[in-house]
Design goal:
The complex is a heterodimer. In chain A, 74% of the residues lie in helices and 0% in strands. Chain A is mainly alpha-helical. The chains are: A mainly alpha, B mainly alpha.
Amino acid sequence: MTSDSHALPSNAGDHGHHAHDAAAHGTLSSYLIGFGLSVVLTAVPFWLVMTGAIADKQVTALIVLLLAAVQIVVHMIYFLHMNTRSENGWTMMALIFTVIMVVIALTGSLWVMHHLNTNMMPMHDMSQMP
Amino acid sequence: MTVATVSTQNSEPVFHVIDEHAHPEGASTMLGFWIYLMSDCLIFAILFATFGVLGGNYAAGPAPKDLFDLNLVALNTTMLLLSSITYGFAMLTMEKSKIGATQAWLAITGLFGLAFLGIELTEFAHMIHEGATPQRSAFLSSFFTLVGTHGLHVTFGLVWLTTLMVQVARFGLIEANRRRLMCLSMFWHFLDVVWIGVFTFVYLMGMLR
């Protein structure tokens, strides 16, 4: 890992700045840009669903999901100040690990349970039962 | 001669750990708190997965369309989004060491947080009044668990916010208080990120079902 080999020699000198690195605060403009973006990214999906602007529900759902993913990234960058440099990249490492775990847990659960549902109850739909 | 002995000694394996140098207090707090947030993220991932699996099992009970009022959810989302930006302003004024302004922004953040909780509890009360209790169906059990866990996090965030306002009032913006405020900042923004998932998967996708 390049980050490790780079971190070792400069470790001692880095320490005074550690608290500062993590802080990596935004500026007023970066907060406002993030806020503006998230207002738009929140308003559009609500508008799409509330007015039913797009007749096809599948397309609407796809757009809503996509906008949510973009908004999460916007929040990560502008509000949580994620970058590859803070804490020598360890926050990013922890985030990548977590994202992998989350993707496995979510897609795995939905996939397995969906197949169980379709294979166990071929005759009727549970929601139609009394 | 000595050089030769040192080099022979160095070729031997060394079975001890070199003493770590001193760390300043709080140097690793931010990374540690980030890892806590990631573990919290896993909790929410499991709750989302549970909702994803059970969210369509109404047991002939009420469905999202019968229960959710998107106007209310939009208002709630606005409250949380506004509290996020006001917390950002609190952090900016903290960096300029303005105690009064920091406290004011923190108080405004707290009020938005309270408004969010109030609206959410109103919604819950309304649902329970209509008989849509957590016991009614698997959909409602997973709904109340997921949204309730988020609401509980916001509640504890508000307790933490109040505690820190008292701390800042008593001790000022000392290094320890700045560190605590930065941790709460991450916590608060993280809760907003989770809420994006909630309003998308639970409310908007629920209405599209």
